[in-house]
Amino acid sequence: MLETRFAAAVRRASARRPAAVSSMRPLAVRVARPRPPQLLLPPQPPADEAGRLARLRELGLLDTGPDADCDRLVQLAALACEAPMAMLSLVGEGRQWHKSRVGVPVEHAPREHGLCAHAILTAERLLEVPDTALVPWFDPQLYGPHSQPVRFYAGVPLRCGDGSAVGTLCVMDQVPRRLTEAQRSTLDMLAQAVCSQLELRRQLRVATQTDRLTGLPNWSHFESQFGAARPARGVAAFVRLRTVGQISSAHGFRVADALIQQAAQRLREVANAHGALVGRVKRGLFILFFPGVEPQAFENELATQLVERLALPYAAGELNLVCPVNLGVAAFPRDGRSLDEVVNAADSALQLAIEREETMASFDKTVANVQSVYFRLEPKLRQALAEGEFVNHYQPKIDLATGRIVGVEALVRWEHPQRGLVPPSEFVPALESTGLIAEVGAHTLRRALADWNRWREQGLAAPRIALNVAAAQLRSERFVEELAEAVGAAGAAGALSIEVTESALIVDMRRAAEVLRRVRELGIPVAIDDFGTGYSSLAYLVSLPIDEVKIDRCFVQKSNSDPAYRDVVETCISLAHNLGLKVVAEGVEAESQASLLRELGCDQAQGFLYSAPLSTEQLARMLQAAPASA
Ligand code: C2E
Ligand code: CA
Ligand code: CA
Hints:
Distance between the termini: 91 Å
Domain EAL: 374-627
Shape: elongated
Number of helices: 22
Strand content: 15-25%
InterPro entries: Cyclic-di-GMP_PDE-like, EAL_dom, EAL_sf, GAF, GAF-like_dom_sf, GGDEF_dom, Nucleotide_cyclase, Rev_trsase/Diguanyl_cyclase
Number of strands: 22
Protein name: Signal transduction protein: sensor, GAF domain regulator, GGDEF/EAL domains-like protein
CATH superfamily of the largest domain: EAL domain
CATH topology of the largest domain: TIM Barrel
Domain GGDEF: 232-365
Pfam family, one: GGDEF
CATH architecture of the largest domain: Alpha-Beta Barrel
Structural class: alpha/beta
Bound molecules: ligand C2E, calcium ion
């Protein structure tokens, strides 16, 4: 339909031939109006250049592949204007890019060499240059020595959306001439068609690639904008609104939405002012890319600007809220040579900022390498497992009232052929990251049962062994079955208990509760490990099937020097007792700590005061000397 209407217009336009190429008279005589004075000089960028470039980026057209719709409209322009050259030219920062072209051999030309940068400035319907020889700085061979010379130019600015001109639909000829009024109208009409086409596509993309809440690009749109912009260098930054979650729980999600929208608007303004790309990744998380900006300059100026803008209060209904932020920053291509890499680097910087509770952190190779070190360690850990280099050590748990051993905790060690005993802090995180923890955990379980049976064979009162269970093990479908099989095969009911941390449970509480319930049905008690370090919430203990709480050693160790810590320990003990749970204090190193714990009614203690973790044989000797109570 569109095409038929245009085809008719084109026919009409080319039917009424103008004072044509063949009948040219000297231009000085033909040109009634004087040349526009600005053409004597190469063009200055428009006043709203940043906004205009942002608009151009939003169209997402720069450096995209062939496009049949645009090609068709450009061919129609050439036909209607009887011009050997025509193009859809987008005026970017430093160049004009020929999205579709007829008779023009090159894809782009320097912005300052072409006439399109002038055409986008015109307040008229179109810019017509009847003879380019009269423009002193213009080189008719700007498209190369073998191209047709450009002696005539007529370009209609493509005013898309908000009215800023992103480029032109232009026709050119190798001889001086003018367009007829009919040709002008047709060229103008075709330009409007190009605009509608581009705008329609943009709107479609907005529908599919824009985050509805803020109107910002989503990740995939951000990615394609980055691809189109092809920056040589720059800075990527994640911005996280730190308390969106809390604001949402306290005031409702609509208040949080309003805050996110206002933050997005502030980020958009900063981005537009600096020619940056901005997108929203998830709820309170935004990504920005500042092309051409050096990391140091970003940290010194832009980061402060961003943080200050975001620190201003947000108005949501009656409320006036503030929301602190975290920034994670990485440099392109220094910290990552592709968008994915640099965004990963910015993400690891953001994690660093969160961990350090700082507003901003820059990418730090040594920190980021931790993850890859884990994966480099994996083959060695597998080999260690195959060679039986993981061994269990056992640390006694003491009944504070009687002083007797009431259990032991199994603590894994790596008997490294060269390095000797390697502590778990050096490899347990790697086991968890790589998923190897499940296999090593199964191995620890078998060893524990074997040791338990051995102590019994030696005639000792074997204490219950507590196994540390990692989050990945809890998630495993097979975990409970393996536990049941191992206990059944070893004939050692009553030999085991498990310890899990709060953070391992909190991810999927309902599933965790179900797993723990089944574990307890096997006669295996459950303890919460490192209590106080994670979510520090006793509230959820009520809903979990557990038997014991282990107060983290950092509280225990400060309890006799700092009254605040003493209060925490006291409250933990009384609350746990109210819930019918036993309390174990970890890391007891001094007699003063032990006597305070006794005073506060703590049930058991574990720590260097009583014994460091011991090998199987060492523990057997200790059991001989000081029998465990059953
Ligand atoms: P955890 O479960 O909190 O283990 C207690 C840690 O405190 C042990 O460190 C133990 O040696 C140490 N410790 C005991 N008494 C004292 C004391 O009086 N003072 C001080 N400062 N420390 C004391 P270890 O053996 O290095 O284990 C570190 C962590 O590694 C464990 O913390 C646990 O999270 C993990 N881990 C150890 N073995 C295993 C295992 O078999 N499986 C899993 N998933 N994790 C394990
Ligand atoms: Ca433990
Ligand atoms: Ca612990």
